[in-house]
Amino acid sequence: QVQVVQSGGGLVQAGGSLRLSCTASGLSFDDYAMGWFRQAPGKEREGVSCLIWNSRIIYYTDSVKGRFTSSRDNANNTLYLQMASLKPEDTAMYFCAAGKYPGCPGSWKLTDEYNYWGQGTQVTVSS
Asked: Which segments of 2-111 are extended strands (E)?
């Protein structure tokens, strides 16, 4: 049984930093790309980042480039999202997800490209 468990998040002032973690079990973690998504109230789930299986290629959506850093520790089946210079518009529920392939597809921002999802963790950035 695959489980994806997230931790981290919380409330932070604008300009602050937070780190999210995501640990997967029940699957061969290093066989799959991993993604981060976020969903703000009333909006669709948005792809934030995708890392291929060995972290050599990492994609980011334009709005977080230079501020967010994704990383993974395959030895511990854990994915991280380090968020810096946070803005109020970063406020959302954040999700991690395991992809279907070792690489990130061209359509990595689509939720259909991922099989298993974490429970979500809230990030709130105050102005």
From this structure: 3-8, 10-13, 18-25, 34-39, 46-51, 58-60, 68-73, 78-83, 92-99
Neighbours of 117 (CB within 10 A): 18
62-97 b/e (C-beta count within 10 Å ≥ 16 → b):
eebeeebebebeeeebbbbbebeebeeebbbbbbbb
Residue holding tokens 């468990």? 5
By CB atoms closer than 10 A (0-12, 13-18, 19+), residue 107 is exposed
- DSSP class of residue 125 equals E
Per-residue pLDDT, 8: 95
* Sign of the alpha-carbon dihedral angle for 106, 47, 76, 100: negative
What pLDDT does residue 42 have?
Answer: 95
Closest CA to 95 of 48, 37, 47: 37
Centre a 10 Å sphere on the Cβ of residue 99 and count the other Cβ atoms it contains: 22
If you search the block for the tokens 């980042």, which residue do you land on? 49
Which has the closest alpha carbon to 6: 95, 92, 77? Answer: 95
